[in-house]
Each structure stands twice: as structure tokens, then as C-alpha cells.
Design brief:
Length: about 600
């Protein structure tokens, strides 16, 4: 970038800052963020501090709970097992996700969009639904065992479920998109001509790939690996449903201390330990992601990029056997990528024919098709009542989180004030802190005010879950908006607020709608908060499904899962269709649309 361009951008940034300072005043941006900060501080911040206080004893100050948590051999064993599980899931996700991300940048634009949709869709399909899908696939009478038995390859069903293998499969399936997307973002920034230059200089295809391309994607590898590891560390639903008696994770142990042993103080201490470990990993995440974007000269000798280059030099010896750019690899690499994508989509798609099965039990392929399980769903009050509770809670959550998050995003993106980074970190922290810790902390707080088992309590808790999503999505939309049309409107006599409402707000409307849909979906699909806060009088649909998956073998759950998948697809597609319609309307107007000020 030229010096003139840099100067122009700097001047534009200064003008933008002065413009919005005039729009809202010196402290106006903080006032925009105040409602969100107040709500989040009351419902989320205070409970976290109370959780910390509870961990030191309810009646008198003591460190006994931490001594137990840190010296008990079984707890240490579970903690180390959880760390190992998270590391192994991360490694598998990296090995499987890298070919998919590579395929996404090497294929055509249209196919890249298709792959992106196929990768993103599972992220917004309920974790509970995806875990249930794997129960259907891996169970003793599941699809894989049925196929192997019917083909005569095995005489007895294989133990694929309720063990560590089932946990690995389920967690890798859920965590893969979180690895693929950072890798894809990093690969898109790589100039592929550098790989071609290495090959023209005499390097083989595999050597050019491992010694040039892979090191240039270090930021994506680091970001994706740490993100998956952090999320895996606090994961609860999938290990609880797919694991056996010996596959206990640290968050499951915390839940048992609460619900079985009723040892709230020890559970609080364990939650704080997990929270501190998570925050350390988050700090490491930001540190390494920042480092990965710098040059080697700025980072010294011990850089991730240099370490990765050293490790990949050994792989270059294999180029004569298998090389990127060879005819074999041109077929094998896309085949591997599409196979991983099939692994992401297939378990979800299998639920559709099962939900229309005429069989009285789960059977694949179905011997006939029927609507009996949908009829059973609509005829059972326990299912329909839970559905209406989820719809009501999700709708109220959406209407509360969207305006609060939008105002906070405006304050974050356009404001310059002391403590802005701290405020931003606090606003998005619920998306980083393990949901079980948030649930435990809020449960402690809400139990005092008799909000457990109420719609109000669920809505308040789900706003904590949805608010970070709204802030992130709207901030991204607002950051991409050009400030100059707004400045032009003011130069023509519009007031600052009118210029913002008439010019910028319509521009970020698709982002706000997307954030609203995400807020609804986050509430509608939540399991963990509902487990602690639903009680018996405000059971949500995911809570009812959780009980059904654990205590029943009912194909009605397949029908409910199909409906939840369709809700996710509709909510994901709606913002895109609205944005497409808006762009077409803009082109129909010939780009000459005027704004009434």
C-alpha cells in the first residue's frame, strides 16, 4: 500500500472518530454499551464472582475445596483424561479439516460456496440432535452394525457406542467446523503463486506444499487448534450421551458434584479451576494468533512458522512416493475432502428417512414411510408444551438480545474510550467460558431469587448466551460499512442521528437480521442452561429431548430432530435470501436510490 493511501485511510479514520464523537458525545458510546454491560454484569458477572466466593466456603473462608480438587487422585485422573481427550480430538480435527479447507480454496467459486454451506450447517444444528444422530448410527442395533451384520462381515454387533470411540466420533464431528473455518480463512490469504514458484525452482509438489504452503497457514493452524481445544475442554453434552461409565470428563464430574453429591462448594471450586484453565488458554490463543501474523524477523528464532518448517522438512522425503500435484494426489486430495464433508452431513441427513419410518422402532433403511412419529409428537402434550416453551423463550431472547447487542456493537466499533477492549472482552466472554460454568454460576444466583423453573429465568440466561453472537455479527457488519455516505448526508444538512438512521442503519440491516436469527437459534437449541434452569415447570424442547435420549428409545425423537434441523436451515437461509432480495432491489433501482433526510 502506498504512503498516500495510508495517509488517506488515516485521515478518514480521524474524520470518522470526530464524526461519531459529535454524534454521541464523549461518553455517548459508553452509554450505548451500558444496557448490555449492566444486564450481562448482573446476570453473568455477579454470578461468576459468587461462584468464586462459594468455592472458598459458604460460611467461612477456607481453601479446603481447592485442596480436595487439586489433591484427589480421581479428580486429577479425570482432569488429565479430559486434557488428553481434548488434545486428541484437536489433532484428529486438524488432520481431517486441513484437506477440506484446502479443497475449498482450490475448487471453483460456486463449489466453494457449496462446501462452505455444508461445513457451516452442522455448526447451527443442535449439538443434541447431532449426538442423537450418532446414537442412531453407532448403536448396537444402529445403522453401521445392521449393515455389517446383514452383509455377513460380522456375527456380533461391534461396541461402537457408550465408550471412548463413540465420544471421539461425536466430538470430532461437532468440532470439525471450528477447525475448518480458521484454516480456510488463513489459506485464502496465501498467494498460491509462491507454491508455483517453489515448484518452478525444482521443488517437488509435496515439498512445495509442506515447506511453503503449510507454514504460510500457521495462523489458521494455531487458531483452529486452540479454538477446538478450548471448546473440547468444556464440552458436556456429547461425552455424557455417547460415553460409557468410564468416560467421565471434568465438566461431567462438576455436574455430578452438583446433582448427585449436592456438594456445591466443591463443584464451585472445580468450576473455577476449569475457568482459570480456559482463560489461560484464551490468553495463549490471542497471543499465538497475534504472533502468527508477524514476520519471523519480529519474532526471533523460536517461531511457530520456523518450528513448523523444521517439522515438515522430514515429510519432503515422501515426495517421490506421494506428491501434491501428481495425478494421484489430484484425485485423492479432493476425494478425502469430500469424504470428510460427507462425514459432517451424513449423520444429520440420515435422521430424515428415519423420522418418516413406518417401523415401530429405529430401522435403516425404513421398510415403509409414514407420518406416525410426527403425529405422535403432535398428540403428546409433553412434546408440544416443551416446544411452545422453547419458541416463547427463544422469541423473547431474540427481542431482548438483538437491540442490546446492536447498541453495544455500535459503541464498540465507533467508540474510542478508556477500557473499550476490556468491555469488548467482557461482552463476548460468555461465548468463550464453558457453558456448564455459566449454567452453574447462574443457577446459584437464580436459586436465591426463585427464578429456576420460570420463563423469566430462562430468557435472562439465554440472553447471556445470545448477546455475544449479536455483538460479533453486528460489529462485523458495521465495520464493513463505508462512513463517507454518512458524512455526505451530514454535509447536506442532516442531523447526526438522522444521518445514521437513514444511511448506516439500512446498510447494516442484513447483519442485524442475521444476528437476530442467530440469537433465536442459540436459545432454541440450548441444552446445558436448560438442564439447570428449566426445573419441572418450564421444560424446553432440548431438555425434553435430553430426557428422551437418555431414558427412552422413541423414534419420535427422530421426528423432533428433523423439525429442529429444518428450523436451523430456515433461520440460516432467511438472512441470505433477504440480503439477496435487497441487492436485487438495489440493482432494479439502477443504483440511483435517494435518501429522504
Amino acid at each position: 500500500m502506498s504512503t498516500g493511501a495510508v495517509t488517506a485511510r488515516t485521515c478518514a479514520g480521524v474524520r470518522s472518530e470526530k464524526f461519531f464523537a459529535g454524534l454521541f458525545g464523549r461518553h455517548g458510546f459508553l452509554l450505548l454499551m451500558f444496557p448490555a454491560l449492566l444486564l450481562l454484569g448482573t446476570i453473568y458477572g455477579v454470578p461468576i464472582f459468587r461462584l468464586l466466593a462459594t468455592s472458598f466456603g459458604a460460611n467461612e473462608w477456607s481453601s479446603n475445596n481447592y485442596q480436595v480438587a487439586l489433591t484427589d487422585r480421581y479428580m486429577w485422573k479425570v482432569l488429565l483424561s479430559t486434557l488428553r481427550l481434548s488434545a486428541e480430538v484437536t489433532a484428529v480435527c486438524l488432520l481431517l479439516g486441513y484437506p477440506v479447507a484446502y479443497l475449498m480454496i482450490r475448487t471453483g467459486r460456486r463449489w466453494a460456496q457449496v462446501l462452505t454451506i455444508l461445513v457451516v450447517l452442522p455448526m447451527w444444528t443442535s449439538v443434541l440432535v447431532r449426538s442423537y444422530a450418532w446414537i442412531v448410527v453407532l448403536g448396537r442395533n444402529g445403522i453401521i452394525n445392521q449393515l455389517l451384520t446383514d452383509s455377513g462381515l460380522i456375527a456380533e454387533p461391534l461396541p461402537l457406542l457408550y465408550n471412548r470411540f463413540g465420544v471421539y466420533v461425536g466430538m470430532v464431528h461437532i468440532m470439525l467446523p471450528y477447525m475448518i473455518l480458521p484454516l480456510y480463512a488463513a489459506m485464502k490469504r496465501v498467494d498460491l503463486r509462491l507454491v508455483d514458484a517453489a515448484r518452478s525452482a525444482g521443488a517437488g509438489g509435496f515439498a512445495a506444499f509442506t515447506l511453503v504452503f503449510v507454514p504460510l497457514t500457521t495462523s489458521g493452524i494455531v487458531a483452529g487448534s486452540l479454538l477446538v481445544f478450548i471448546l473440547s475442554l468444556g464440552f458436556f453434552v456429547t461425552p455424557a450421551l455417547l460415553g460409557g461409565a468410564g468416560d467421565v470428563t471434568y465438566v461431567m464430574l462438576i455436574e455430578r458434584q452438583l446433582n448427585e453429591s449436592l456438594n456445591w462448594e466443591l463443584a464451585a471450586a472445580m468450576a473455577v479451576i476449569l475457568l482459570v484453565a480456559t482463560l489461560i488458554l484464551v490468553a495463549l490463543y490471542w497471543r499465538l494468533v497475534g504472533i502468527a501474523g508477524q514476520s519471523d524477523a519480529d519474532r526471533g528464532k523460536a517461531t511457530p512458522s520456523r518450528v513448523l518448517r523444521t517439522a515438515t522438512r522430514a515429510l519432503a522425503a515422501w515426495q517421490s512416493t506421494f506428491g501434491y500435484g501428481s495425478s494421484a494426489s489430484r484425485l485423492l486430495a479432493p476425494a478425502l475432502g469430500w469424504t470428510v464433508v460427507g462425514f459432517l452431513i451424513a449423520p444429520i441427513m440420515i435422521l430424515f428417512p428415519l423420522s418418516f419410518s413406518a417401523s415401530p422402532f429405529l430401522e435403516f433403511p425404513p421398510r415403509g414411510f409414514s407420518l406416525q412419529w410426527f403425529q405422535n409428537y403432535f398428540n403428546r402434550p409433553d412434546w408440544t408444551a416443551a416446544t411452545w416453551v422453547s419458541i416463547k423463550v427463544a422469541t423473547l431472547t431474540m427481542f431482548a438480545a438483538t437491540p442490546l447487542g446492536t447498541l453495544a456493537a455500535i459503541g464498540l466499533v465507533r467508540g474510542r474510550f478508556l477500557g473499550a477492549r476490556l468491555a469488548a472482552g467482557f461482552l463476548v466472554s460468555p461465548s468463550i467460558v464453558p457453558t456448564l460454568i455459566t449454567a452453574v454460576a447462574i443457577y446459584f444466583q437464580f436459586a436465591r431469587f426463585q427464578l429456576v423453573g420460570t420463563i423469566t429465568g430462562l430468557v435472562l440466561a439465554h440472553v447471556v448466551l445470545a448477546l455475544p453472537l449479536v455483538v460479533i455479527v453486528v460489529s462485523g457488519a458495521l465495520s464493513s460499512v463505508d462512513i463517507r455516505p454518512e458524512q455526505a448526508a451530514r454535509s447536506l444538512g442532516a442531523t447526526p442521528i438522522m444521518a445514521f438512521l437513514k444511511v448506516t442503519l439500512p446498510a447494516i440491516k442484513p447483519g442485524i437480521l442475521t444476528a437476530a436469527f442467530f440469537a433465536f437459534l442459540a436459545s432454541f437449541d440450548d441444552v446445558v442452561l436448560a438442564l439447570f434452569l428449566s426445573g419441572t415447570s418450564a421444560t424446553t424442547l432440548p431438555k425434553r429431548m435430553w430426557d428422551g435420549v437418555r431414558f427412552e428409545v422413541d423414534p419420535t425423537i427422530a421426528a423432533v430432530s428433523t423439525m429442529m434441523i429444518m428450523v436451523s436451515i430456515v433461520l440460516l437461509a432467511a438472512p441470505q435470501l433477504l440480503a439477496l432480495r435487497s441487492r436485487r432491489a438495489g440493482r432494479a433501482d439502477g443504483g440511483t436510490k435517494t435518501v429522504s433526510l
